[in-house]
Design brief:
The radius of gyration is 15 Å and the shape is globular. The chain has about 120 residues and is an alpha/beta fold. It has one domain: Ribonuclease H-like superfamily/Ribonuclease H (Nucleotidyltransferase, domain 5, 2-Layer Sandwich), CATH 3.30.420.10. The protein has two helices and seven strands; from the N terminus they run βββαβββαβ.
């Protein structure tokens, strides 16, 4: 999807597989953040997919990409969406606080559960 500079980014946390850490098997995740206009991408690896980890990754991404876009699109993950009833999405409160504290006039958008191509 083509957008204007600074308008939109997409964020997601994906499971990549497993790693061994001192003989202990752990899940490996990658947080992806991509600006829609310039396609600048930020990737951060993690061994957890909890809300705190997701928020830390989301906080680090704009430092790398050079700013916070007006709209951030998310997948329908539990760390992002508290509840969804049809097209009405209730975002995680900690996520909303972080995004709106980054800069004013920010907007969140979620991908509908049955329509992942909206990403």
């Amino acid at each position: 999807m083509k957008t204007l500079p600074g308008k939109q980014a997409k964020a997601d946390l994906e499971h990549l597989g497993f790693i061994s850490d001192n003989g202990k098997r752990q899940r490996l995740y990658a947080f992806f953040f991509a600006l829609s206009y310039s396609r600048i991408r930020y990737v951060q690896f993690a061994t957890r997919q909890d809300t705190l980890t997701f928020l830390r990754c989301l906080q680090n991404a704009p430092e790398y990409t050079g700013g916070v876009p007006q709209i951030i699109l998310f997948d329908n993950a539990k760390t992002v969406v508290s509840e969804q009833v049809e097209a009405v999405i209730q975002f995680n409160r900690d996520l909303m606080r972080l995004v709106f504290n980054m800069e004013s006039n920010r907007m969140l958008a979620g991908c509908m559960t049955l329509n992942p191509r909206e990403k």
